[in-house]
Structures are given as C-alpha cells and as structure tokens.
TrEMBL record:
Recorded metabolic or biological pathway in which this protein acts: Isoprenoid biosynthesis; geranylgeranyl diphosphate biosynthesis; geranylgeranyl diphosphate from farnesyl diphosphate and isopentenyl diphosphate: step 1/1
Origin species: Thermohalobaculum xanthum
Biological role: Catalyzes the condensation of farnesyl diphosphate (FPP) and isopentenyl diphosphate (IPP) to yield geranylgeranyl diphosphate (GGPP) needed for biosynthesis of carotenoids and diterpenes.
Catalytic reaction equation(s): isopentenyl diphosphate + (2E,6E)-farnesyl diphosphate = (2E,6E,10E)-geranylgeranyl diphosphate + diphosphate
Residue ranges crossing the lipid bilayer per the database entry: none
Keyword line: Carotenoid biosynthesis, Chlorophyll biosynthesis, Isoprene biosynthesis, Magnesium, Metal-binding, Photosynthesis, Transferase
Protein name per UniProt: Geranylgeranyl diphosphate synthase
EC number(s) on file: 2.5.1.29
Listed InterPro entries: Isoprenoid_synthase_dom_sf (IPR008949), Polyprenyl_synt (IPR000092), Polyprenyl_synt_CS (IPR033749), Prenyl_diphosphate_synthase (IPR053378)
A GO molecular-function annotation: geranylgeranyl diphosphate synthase activity
SUPFAM superfamilies the UniProt entry points to: Terpenoid synthases
C-alpha cells in the first residue's frame, strides 16, 4: 500500500495514542505523602497529553519493521518519551532556557515550582531506564542491557546533556560558533535522542548489525532535518503554532542552521536530508514507507 500524507497522519496519531496508553500504564499514579503525590502529578503533567510523540513513533515503527511484538515497541517508545520529557522540564527552567510555555501550557516550574520541576525531571529520567530494564520490554537480558547502554550514551555527557552544555556556553561566548560546532551541538542535543529512539526499536526487533547501521544513519539525517525545521519555526512560526515562545534563539545570541545557511538554504538542506534518510531505508522497500514519510513530516510540520 502506498504511503500517503493522510495515511502517515493516521499512523502517527495511532502511535501517539498507543504511547499515551503505555505511558499511563508505566507511570505511577498520584498517591502517598503530600510531597510524593505532588511529584507524581508533576511527572504525569510533564509527559502526558501533549506532543507529537515522534520519538515513540520512531521506536514503535522500527520495532514493527523488524516484526517485534507491538507491546515491546510501545514500551521502548514510552521510555524515550519519558527521557525526552525530563530534558524539556529541565531545559525550560530559569537556569537553562527560562521558558514559561511548553506544548501550549505552563512549564512544570511555572505550574508548580523549581524544586518540583527538578525532581520531576530526575524521576522521569529514572523511569525511562526502569522501563527498558524491565523483562516486559524484552525477555533477553542482553537486549535490555543494550537498550539501557545506548540510551545512556545518547542522553548523557556525550549526547543530549553535553549538547545542552555547549548551547549554554554559546550564549556568553565572545565569538559566534563555527558551523561545524553548531552541527555538533544540534546532533548531540536534539539528534542523539531521535537517533537512539529509532535504533532502540531495531534492537528490540532483533535487527542485524548492518540493519541497525542503516536505521542509525536514517535517524541521524532525520534528526538534523528536525533541528533545521525547529530553527526555521523559531524564525517563521508563531506562538500559537509552535506552542512555546519563538524568536528566542536570536534574542539569546545562539547560532542556528538558519544563521549559517539562511532561510532558503536551510530549507534546501532539510530537503536534502529527507532524500538521504529515504535512501538509507531503500533496502527495506515499501515496509519502510512510514519511516520515510516521517522524514518529510519533520520538515513540513508547523509545530
């Protein structure tokens, strides 16, 4: 069956609903002492009921590509969404990017307070690894260990956290970042988690070394295209479309792909990356249609 824009939108919506149900099942329910209940409420607020669930979709769709049971893909997707939500909670805080709005609603530190936001982010990070380490995700302990290792590598000092550190340092730097540094920053801060989401789905599906290499290359191209689209939205989007403040990168003096390439050049580069992503998946044929459509989606989105 040919993949159309409508069929992709339906598949993405179904994946988001599946991820939401799995998150609800994996997250604790508010209970216990007042502080404990408040923490759990903040955790659920941060991760439930919002977002495109792109990372969960990538995990579930690559797991499906390699015939993994749907529940395993959904658990991996839920873990990626918990890790992603933790990063957003912390990034939004005054000591980081200082944002008041996320997904069209107040950020966690605004809805509660800074201490609760720190703890909610910490707890969501640990839940991500708890999900991956649970035998319900995969009966093979070696597979579970690989999943945890790859998520740790993608989210720590050599990945997402390291990228955020470079980003913060750039705000007070005397000189603009060189293009290669901007690319490294974005690959670490944004691309690494997108890349590992797709790779984790392939791992849980028992993909071969070569197949995982293709999935990783596809997701790396998609991750860069995603960040270019984010940079374009920061310049051309509205608060209503994006669900958060826009124009902040320029105000903070941050270098982006738009600064380096210009608006037209950034769009052209994003299109090139979509083609690269699609080419990496060509050996999988029509079965990879939804993953290819995802690459186009991240470029064309308005939020």
């Amino acid at each position: 069956m040919q993949t159309t824009e409508a069929s992709f939108a339906e598949t993405l919506s179904e994946a988001a609903a599946d991820a939401e149900r799995m998150l609800d099942a994996c997250l604790p329910k508010p209970q216990g002492a007042p502080g404990e209940a408040e923490l759990i409420e903040a955790m659920r607020y941060a991760v439930m009921g919002g977002g495109k669930r792109l990372r969960a979709f990538l995990a579930m769709e690559t797991a499906r590509l390699f015939d993994a049971p749907p529940a395993r893909g959904a658990r991996v997707g839920a873990a990626m969404e918990c890790l992603h939500a933790y990063s957003l909670v912390h990034d939004d805080m005054p000591c980081m990017d200082d944002d008041d709005l996320r997904r069209g609603k107040p950020t966690v530190h605004k809805a509660w307070n800074e201490a609760t936001a720190v703890l909610a982010g910490d707890a969501l990070q640990t839940v991500a690894f708890e999900i991956l380490a649970d035998p319900a995700t995969h009966p093979d302990g070696d597979v579970r260990a690989r999943l945890c290792l790859r998520l740790a590598q993608a989210s720590g000092h050599a990945g997402m956290v390291g990228g955020q550190a470079i980003d913060l340092a750039a705000e007070s730097a005397a000189e603009p970042m060189a293009p290669e540094t901007v690319r490294k920053l974005q690959q670490m801060k944004t691309g690494a988690l997108i890349e590992v989401s797709a790779e984790a789905g392939a791992i849980v599906g028992g993909a071969s070394h070569d197949e995982i290499g293709r999935i990783r290359a596809y997701a790396r191209a998609l991750g860069e295209a995603f960040q270019i689209a984010d940079d374009l939205l920061d310049v051309t989007g509205t608060v209503e479309e994006v669900g958060k403040a826009v124009g902040k990168d320029a105000g903070a003096g941050k270098a982006t792909f738009v600064d380096i390439l210009g608006i037209d050049g950034a769009r052209a580069r994003a299109d090139e990356l979509v083609s690269t992503a699609a080419a990496e998946l060509s050996p999988f044929g029509a079965r990879a249609g939804m993953l290819i459509a995802a690459a186009r989606f991240v470029v064309d989105r308005r939020s």
